[in-house]
Model the fold of this input.
Amino acid sequence: MNSQVELVVDSKTLMGGNPCWEEETQTFYWVDLMGSKVYTYQPATGERHWLEVNQHVGAYIPRQGGGAVIALQSGLYLLEPQTKEVVPVFIPDPSENRFISGKCDLTGRFWAGTSDLLSQKPWGTLYCMEKDHTVRPVLVNATLPWGLGWSPDYRLMYYVDTPTREIVAFDFTPETGALNNKRTVVKFPDGVGLPAGMTVDADGKLWVAHWQGGRVTRWDPETGTLLATVQLPVSLVTACQFGGSAFEELYITTARYPLNPKELARQPHAGGIFCLRPGVKGLPTPKYAS
Done:
């Protein structure tokens, strides 16, 4: 495995996260979870842009017909492709929670998680939004539902509630979105940080970002075995997502918050986007189906 990690965008994002890759335009998207901007980067040209969404943003996923589905602090919204208008679809009861994560499954459902604003109380919920815009709570009492992924055949869903130090799997029914038979597949040892965002490669292995652990790791979910470790020059690693023309590149988001000035001096590239060619391929990022 060529584990040469390179800094590709020195974005200094407060808390980069929830990356996705749009195949048609070869564009990498990510959000600042502590800010209100969605960022894009096109590796072929080096071009970078950002979009201001005017409240804390948890996730931004392109839609099949153009535009995007966006998890903002207050709820789930659709960005209309023509007017660039942001239209609310689902606003949960006002509470002390915010949307912190989001991904689509193969059928185009949008899965999005909430966390209490300090990510300390088990008040969070993982929601599922169908393509007809109906929304249902799926998993409750989460503290920081940060990681989500599916096996290549979409028969398993993997889920990370960060403070539990575990990755759990569910039997997944793509036709209905039903989850069954919850079990733990990976336990994080002490001293390596906490599991954050994750993705699944074409071999069905899990790639996981280590918050406070300065690395991404690859795991076999069938045996719970650690297969590979890639060290990063920053401690707060938030998520990873495959991209590139053949999904041969692993893009990694990181954070600067809440590092102190001394830590920031030691980690000048904290909050940047890193890239790695791990020698295995990833899977496409599905879009929202509506």
Notes: The first strand starts at residue 6 and ends at 9. The chain has one domain: 6-276. The chain has a mean pLDDT of 96.
